[in-house]
Design brief:
The chain is mainly α and 968 residues long. It is built from 50 helices and seven strands.
């Protein structure tokens, strides 16, 4: 049975891929056999295949009985006149043939050619010698004669003159003269004669153009649709020699200084060996400068006088080593990049290093791009200055798409070497272009050196670099909101690794990344993906991978509503993570972020804080980790829910800045919202700063289905409600898909419904059913997960309904139950608000003693935690306020910022009065019976509340206050 082979064709010779040119040469040979002589000019750039075509022609001619005379010129024979003809004609310069010629012609040939075999001979007229040679060739052409003159651009002047005269006459005998040369290096006189002959029809001109795609495919033995072939063809300029050398270097890793220079590029090496010392110096200086340069720049790098440099450059142009660039009257370049590479690699290393530093100075004066300068920086030193590293960083950003391998190397070098005091944001700004460059390089799968550079300074080995590169790209895609691209990326990587039968640990790690995308994007695949990751991690995964898989599994089970299983996986993940050392988790901070996210969802902010803090610490060991703003945002949320507002605000502010450097807009809105809520609670009512931050975050919102968007909306809704805007709170929340809040994470819905209940109680419109409806939905959402803190939100919502119905005792009971649940869940801020609501309700019931006790303890906690918004509340404040009609909500009416001391506590007023008299800290401490440290703490709070910055300002304020008191 016949079968169709789909294997690639074997590599073919240059002559076999230049079919049109080969057929024209064979046509000339056929005419020769039919008795018609002629002249063929074969011209092309170096490496275009002239010699291979001549070899094929000679082989066919010999097989057909044609006499073949083969002459090749060499640069070493420039001082040996007519040596190419002497060598080519040696086979027919016999005594019998000379005796058959006229005595004049025989004497000319003996004197001009035969004597040169012994190194002697006198100068003869080229015209007379060409006539004698014409007669000899005609006599020897019994069955046709083929005279091949290859590389004739290297011919000595006498040989050029002789060929010039030969080409002026038509051969009447069956003699075919083929002259092959490089037109850029051939003498103008011969070019003129051949051009004139072509016009008159005496010379057939065969020009060898660059190979096309089909020819290149046949030459390399690959299919025309091979992905890398077009770029290889462009890089080689279509020249067969360079194309073959490039393909061999890429597939075998051949070094131009070793295998290639003794193989395919041996003619190139021989050509460069003929350069004199000055030409070699200038050529190597050009190789250092790059792809384009001027004569002045060559003089600066070579350190030769300008006049001498110009003379040498002219010689190199004549030799076709250098060429003037098109569209430029001053710049030059190499005839091909491979030539530059060979010269650069062969230059003395010590000289080359200093030359690159001189070239860098030249390029700085030229204001060259960072990419051009970066090459010289990394080749001139191994000890980089800060300016060098900044240039490498900019170069990496410039070259991420045009030259991704260079971009990866430059960006990683900058990330590793930039000093520790460099702002973190400056380093993070390099990560998105690094990720894009890594994708363009297929995650460094074929570059061992760059894989080692990626994992330098980390516990990861070079074999784990591909996973690290893929992980970095996935995280960056998620940060920039491209979740579908992140999914495609990791799915393709997993499919490729499964096809390669990768080990389960690597598959588990990438499956965890797929789960991270699902967690952030809120799709329904999370439980299934998390289960897959856990199975893989349990069957061959490392301890670190198992911890990450367990954390993801806990989130997956929680998303599926299986709370018991989620708690079991979470506890197992915590135990596993606690057993891991600092080094074990250095490159896996995303696992700590997963664990922190799970802890927050389960209502354990204190534990979440410990995971986020640990992640923020270990991430410092990995210079190209994009997780820091994620960890800081999680840390801010955990601190905020514990009532540690100042710490939360600092974490959120830092995360906001870093997220901006990474282009993580969705995350940046989250951190802005967190900062706004911190300021709302930490400053007195009607704070302009809180309002400004909130508005900035609201205007930055972009509708999305991702988890960060839901968290942003929820946080901003709480801030708006606390600032006295219940209508806007309701509007924001209902924009999450309608009354059921479908685009809000299930673990956050009870809190969302509680805010809607409170907003409805405060007079918010658009609440679709009123307070009781929202409270019922909060209860339903809480029952679905059965977590204590979610039950607490449902209790709060039900308490709001009872307070609205004036059932104060029942409301107090629910508020206190909610407070105990929040306390057990470590949610101190909500515990405080629940206590204040209890006090509000108790003050309206028949239990004034309880109300007073609750108010006192609540204000003490608010003072202790610096929650000024809640510390300002007064049990005597009327319940009717600007938040709504008959409002029984948390806050009194927003009031303007005071200019007096009303914002201070009693103790703070005492400290302010003492400080205003000019007393020192120790004196104030002795007068009030406090420690100096306590006095300093009070003073810092006083400065913040009064918005002043020094004791001098405080003294002036106190002086005004005392004067006012005396006047009244």
């Amino acid at each position: 049975m016949a079968t169709t082979s789909i294997s690639l064709v074997a590599k073919q010779s240059t002559s076999s891929v230049r079919c049109r040119e080969s057929l024209r040469l064979l046509g000339a040979l056929q005419e020769l056999q039919e008795g018609r002589g002629g002249i063929v000019e074969l011209l092309g750039d170096p490496g275009s295949g002239k010699s291979r075509l001549l070899a094929q022609l000679a082989s066919v001619a010999r097989a057909r009985g044609v006499t073949v005379l083969d002459g090749r010129c060499y640069p070493s024979e420039l001082d040996e006149p007519l040596h190419v003809f002497t060598r080519a004609l040696n086979g027919i310069m016999t005594a019998d043939r000379l005796s058959a010629l006229s005595s004049e012609h025989a004497e000319l040939l003996r004197a001009g050619l035969c004597a040169r075999l012994g190194g002697r001979g006198r100068e003869l007229s080229p015209l007379q010698l060409s006539q004698a040679l014409h007669a000899l060739l005609s006599q020897a052409a019994d069955h046709g004669l083929l005279l091949l003159l290859d590389d004739f651009h290297w011919a000595d002047p006498q040989s050029l003159a002789l060929a010039d005269h030969l080409a002026r006459w038509t051969f009447r005998a069956p003699v075919l003269l083929v002259v092959a040369h490089r037109p850029r290096q051939t003498a103008p006189s011969l070019l003129s004669t051949l051009a004139l002959g072509a016009e008159q029809g005496r010379v057939e001109r065969i020009d060898l153009p660059p190979l096309d795609l089909e020819q290149a495919a046949r030459l390399l033995g690959v299919r025309p649709d091979t992905a890398w072939l077009p770029s290889a063809l462009r890089e080689s300029s279509g020249h067969p020699l360079y194309l073959l050398a490039q393909e061999e270097s890429a597939t075998r890793g051949a070094d131009p200084r070793a295998e290639l220079l003794t193989g395919r590029l041996a003619p190139l090496a021989a050509e460069l060996a003929e350069l004199d010392p000055a030409e070699r110096l200038v050529a190597e200086s050009a190789a250092v400068l790059g792809d384009r340069f001027s004569r002045d720049e060559l003089a600066a790098v070579s350190e030769l006088p300008t006049d001498e440099t110009c003379a040498v450059v002219n010689a190199l142009v004549q030799l076709d080593v250098l060429r003037p660039l098109r569209c430029s009257g001053t710049l030059l370049g190499f005839r091909h990049r491979l030539l530059r590479r060979v010269l650069h690699d062969q230059a003395d290393r010590c000289w080359r290093s200093h030359a690159h530093r001189r070239a860098l100075s030249v390029l700085n004066r030229r204001a060259a791009s960072a990419s051009e300068r970066a090459v010289h920086i990394e080749l001139s030193t191994s000890s980089f200055t800060p300016e060098d590293l900044e240039t490498l960083a900019r170069a990496g950003q410039e070259a991420e798409q045009t030259s991704p391998y260079d971009a990866v190397r430059w960006l990683l070098t900058a990330l590793h070497e930039l000093p520790a005091e460099q702002p973190t944001g400056r380093l993070l700004a390099l990560i998105p272009p690094l990720a894009r460059a890594l994708r363009a390089t297929d995650y460094l799968a074929d570059d061992v050196q760059l894989r080692a550079l990626l994992t330098r300074g980390s516990p990861l080995g070079p074999d784990e670099a591909v996973r690290a590169a893929i992980g970095l790209c996935v995280i960056v895609e998620c940060l920039q909101g491209r979740f579908s691209e992140a999914t495609e990326l990791v799915t393709a990587a997993l499919a490729d690794l499964r096809a390669k039968r990768a080990d389960n640990d690597l598959l588990a790690q990438l499956t965890i990344y797929r789960g991270i995308v699902s967690t952030l994007n809120g799709d329904e695949e999370l439980p299934r993906i998390a289960a897959q990751a856990l199975v893989l991690a349990r069957n061959g995964g490392k301890r670190t991978t198992l911890a990450g898989a367990m954390a993801l599994h806990a989130l997956g089970e929680l998303a599926a509503g299986r709370v018991a299983q989620s708690l079991a996986s979470y506890d197992a993940a915590v135990r596993q993570m606690d057993e891991l050392s600092h080094a074990d988790v250095t490159c896996h901070s995303e696992y700590l972020a997963l664990l922190g996210s799970c802890a927050m969802a389960l209502g354990r902010p204190r534990e979440a804080e410990s995971f986020y803090e640990r992640g923020s610490t270990v991430i410092q060991e990995c210079s190209h980790n994009a997780m820091l703003p994620v960890l800081l945002s999680g840390l801010a949320e955990a601190q905020l829910r514990q009532g540690r507002l100042q710490s939360a605000r600092r974490s959120a502010a830092e995360a906001t800045e870093l997220a901006g450097y990474l282009g993580a807009e969705q995350l940046r809105v989250v951190t802005l919202a967190q900062e706004a809520l911190c300021v709302t609670y930490a400053e007195p009512p009607a704070s302009n700063r809180a309002s400004a931050l909130t508005e900035q975050a609201v205007h930055s919102l972009r509708r999305s289905a991702c988890r960060w968007h839901g968290l942003s909306v929820l946080t901003l809704a709480e801030a708006l409600l606390m600032q006295g805007s219940p209508d806007r709170c309701v509007s924001l929340l209902l924009d999450l898909g309608g009354p059921e809040l479908p685009r809000l994470e299930p673990t956050l819905r009870p809190r969302g419904f509680e805010l809607l209940t409170l907003a409805s109680l405060s007079g918010g419109t658009g609440s679709s059913g009123g307070t009781a409806l929202w409270a019922d939905r909060a209860n339903t959402a809480a029952q679905g997960l059965r977590l204590p803190h979610n039950r607490a939100y449902a209790l709060l919502a039900r308490g709001h309904v009872l307070a609205e119905q004036a059932e104060w005792d029942a409301a107090v009971t629910l508020y206190q139950e909610a407070e105990r649940a929040f306390d057990g869940a470590q949610l101190r801020l909500h515990r405080l608000t629940a206590r204040i609501r209890s006090a509000r309700a108790a003050s309206n019931s028949s239990r004034p003693e309880l109300a007073a006790e609750l108010w006192a303890s609540a204000q003490e906690l608010a003072e202790q935690w610096d929650v000024l918004l809640l510390a300002r509340l007064n049990p005597d404040t009327p319940l009717e306020n600007a938040l709504g009609r008959g409002c029984h909500a948390l806050l009194p009416a927003p009031i303007p910022l005071v200019t007096g001391l009303e914002v201070l506590t009693g103790r703070e007023r005492e400290v302010a009065r003492e400080a205003g008299t000019g007393r020192r800290t120790r004196e104030i401490a002795e007068a009030l019976g406090l420690s100096p440290r306590t006095v300093e703490v009070h003073l810092s709070r006083i400065y913040r509340k009064l918005e002043i910055g020094s004791r001098a300002e405080l003294a002036r304020l106190m002086a005004v206050r005392i004067s006012t008191d005396v006047a009244t």
